Amino acid sequence: MTASMTAFARQEQATQWGAIVWEIRSVNHRYLETQFRLPENLRDLEPLLRDKLRKAFARGKLEVSLNFRPDTEQSQNFCVNTDLVQQLGQALEQVQNTLGQNSSPNPLELLRWPGVLQTAEVDYPQVKSIALTLFQQALEQLQAMRAQEGGALQAIIEQRLARVDEITAQMRTHLPTIMAQQKQKLQRRIDDAKAELEPGRLEQEIVLLLQKADVDEELDRLQTHVSEVTRTLKQNNAIGRRLDFLMQELNREANTLSSKAVDTDVTQTAVELKVLIEQMREQIQNIE
What we know:
This protein is 63% helix and 14% strand. The chain is an alpha+beta fold.
């Protein structure tokens, strides 16, 4: 399946400690390049994330960001350190027994004791576990978007390929007529010049012209490259580099066809082929 290198994924989940938000941006690149922006408390996730991306993608520049927004209401909640309160109560009881006094401790005084009131703490191991699960969902979303975009690119390329194949077949059909017209044109030029030619000179000129205008090999190679591009598009691995190479080969044959043109129709055909090949090449730059 053809996959694009351009895509975006976003996943968000609320937890009891705050919101976790993943964003992954992917653009075209010659190789696989990954960049991470992670909170300091979650930075140790990077090696595992990098390994997951290497297994999932072969090419593309991936920018991965994780935003953890702690719950402000949760951070403002207090909890009582009951163990410490019990220890303080036992200490007060011992003091009262020593002094011979018996009175209940003032709860407000106990709350003022350092460590009795505590703010809720973030359970970062649990946050990391949730973040990894959410990252996998973002990764799958990115893969789906790259596949969807790749399908659209493949449709565009296949449309241009069909046109290249059609043009090549038409030129092959019209080539004998073009060659016959060129032969007649050369004969008229010789007759108009009333040139005295050596025996066989006319035949030599015609042979040279036919050799120069013979583009059968170029048409054969064009069709071969079109077939190879079609076959490559059906593969399930990274195909972008191979497609780019095939576009270079197609362009080479179109240039040769243009250099051999002895007729305006051939010239126009070569120009149209170059336009189609360039259009395909532009789309291929985004294929993994």
